[in-house]
Amino acid sequence: MPGRVRVVLVLLALYALFLLFTATSAPAPRQSFALAGLTIVFIVFLARGHPLARQWAQYVGLLLLLGAIVFAFPGAPAWPDTVFWMAVLFTGGIGAVLLWGLSGPDARMFFDIYCRHCRSFKIRPKGLLFNRVRCRGCGRIWRVHDPRIDAEVFD
User: Fold this and answer.
1) Which helix (H) or strand (E) holds 155?
2) What is the pTM of this model?
3) Across all residues in the chain, what is the average pLDDT?
4) Is the pLDDT of residue 150 over 60?
5) Where are the beta strands (DSSP E) in the chain?
6) Neighbours of 50 (CB within 10 A)
7) With CB atoms 3.0 to 4.6 Å apart as the test, which of 64, 74, 105, 140 could cross-link to 95 if both were Cys?
């Protein structure tokens, strides 16, 4: 497992612990429990090397980063409001680390989304659940992730 992916997994584990801690002390903990559950699902499938989890984690990272930027500038409170700015920096930091940690050639090789035949990183999912991948360069199709999971019904 590449170091970048390990950093992402540690960050997501800390974030899940934070969400579980806030869920136990909040008056309405449903949202924190749901986010913690989603974060734990990301941790499990990212550690197993599932490319669909990588793709969705990158989408979540992009949304977190863009959300932090959007909430920081228009109508933001003054600098002394440290709680607001800490939340913006925390959210933007998690999004940036997700984008950084799940990109790059070593992470793509870990998630088996590169063509070993022509060594291209330009691939497309062949199925709905990202269980087969097609190379745009040479047209080769291969099966990714766990061969025990048979999701042919979605193809």
Assistant:
1) none
2) 0.76
3) 80
4) no
5) 123-125, 132-135, 141-143
6) 23
7) 64
